[in-house]
Write a structure and sequence with these properties.
42% helix; single chain; Ribosomal Protein S5, domain 2; 379 residues; 12 strands; alpha+beta
């Protein structure tokens, strides 16, 4: 699929709607999480990488805030302190965080364009917040390190918009390195880059999810309760991810459902993620594929965050010859990622899409990506 550069789209939209040239351009990528789903807010590791699709913000100084997005073309005059619906709520959130840090310009014109699919579990919201943080601090003539941009974006999404997310999405969008996955130990903040050769396929289920909906917040509360119940059994830990796999059988037996299921997912996903990072380091792609498929089974059965469309795709891809596949992102819709052998990619994807069409009456969108770079200014 050929996609016009989001930077080019944002620049053209800015000229068209505001009648002048933008003075600054910034962009940030969406992400795919290889493994480490729902571990980031439980103190565990994650293994994401930045995809080639990005969100771009073209901006220039202005006394008030005026926004436009290529997705709908509607001009918005924004009051950052008022309740704001839709994508503009993220803009308002970033502005409020920057104000608290004395990093915000007094106003600005912004044109936003993106090739990151919305609601596909590929972190379109973090790409927007990180690109906004870079663009607006640049507009205020401040040079901010990528790690600080990630924290600004996290505060905007978590504290201001109200998404019960961890820091994974914003961190990889800001700090990703081309050709690498990012192993991020969320409890300690330790980060290292692991080479990620080749391409990952993304197959969209067509089922959009909303992070501000109840599912994610409910699971986060269930994890807190699982941690409390584990403490009652004598296993005191700061995070679920600290609990060793060897202690799982006794705890799962002692703790009732669904909290024992949430505990089992987080503990086993923590182990899978660290093993996946090691598999990448030794370029053992078959083992990585096995771990992806095991991770999907855990999301489906223990975290109960999958959907029928994703389950069918994972099964169909595996039967067609994929090394492994799983739902990526928070869940309840979104996209499935697939690791394929070097030969026969097109045939595997075609067979999986045909199975999906038979079941759901439509063919899923499928595309491939390599590991890209994090936030940047300019094109």
């Amino acid at each position: 699929m050929s996609l016009r550069s989001p930077a080019g789209q944002a620049t053209s939209l800015f000229r068209e709607r505001f009648g002048s040239q933008p003075t600054l351009l910034a962009s940030a990528p969406g992400r795919v999480n290889l493994l480490g789903e729902h571990t980031d807010y439980n103190g565990g590791p994650v293994l994401p990488f930045a995809i080639s699709r990005r969100t771009a913000v073209a901006t220039a100084p202005n006394p008030v805030w005026e926004l436009v997005s290529a997705s709908d073309g509607v001009m918005i005059r924004l009051d950052p302190d008022a309740t704001t619906p839709g994508w503009a709520a993220y803009v308002a959130g970033v502005i409020r965080v920057l104000r608290r840090r004395q990093l915000a310009p007094p106003g600005g014109r912004l044109a936003v364009a993106s090739t990151v699919p919305i609601g596909a579990g590929l972190s379109s919201s973090a790409a927007l917040c990180v690109s906004l943080a870079r663009a607006l601090t640049g507009l205020a003539r401040r040079r901010i390190k990528p790690a600080v941009l990630a924290e600004i974006a996290y505060e905007a999404e978590h504290d201001e918009v109200g998404v019960a997310c961890g820091r994974m999405d914003q961190t990889v969008s800001a700090l990703a390195r081309k050709g690498h996955a990012l192993h991020f130990e969320t409890a300690s903040g330790e980060i290292h880059h692991v080479p990620l050769p080749g391409r990952i396929w993304v197959v969209e289920t067509g089922v959009a999810h909303a992070l501000t909906g109840g599912h994610l917040n409910r699971r986060r509360e269930e994890c807190r309760e699982a941690l409390r119940l584990a403490g009652e059994q004598g296993r005191r830990a700061a995070h679920l991810a600290e609990i060793p796999p060897a202690e799982l059988p006794a705890l799962v037996h002692a703790i009732p459902a669904p909290w024992n299921q949430r505990l089992r997912h987080v503990v086993t996903e923590t182990a899978r993620t660290r093993e996946a990072s090691a598999a990448l380091a030794r370029r053992d792609l078959p083992r990585l594929g096995q771990l992806l498929t095991e991770g999907h089974a855990s999301l489906r059965d223990d975290y109960q965050s999958s959907c029928p469309e994703a389950d069918l795709l994972v099964e169909a891809l595996g039967q067609a010859g994929a090394l492994g596949a799983r739902l990526t992102g928070a869940g309840w819709g979104g996209a499935v990622i697939a690791l394929l052998p070097e030969t026969g990619e097109s045939s595997i994807i075609a067979r999986a899409r045909a199975r999906f069409r038979e079941a759901f009456g439509r063919a899923p969108v499928a595309w491939k990506t390599t590991a890209g770079a994090g936030v940047r200014s300019g094109r």
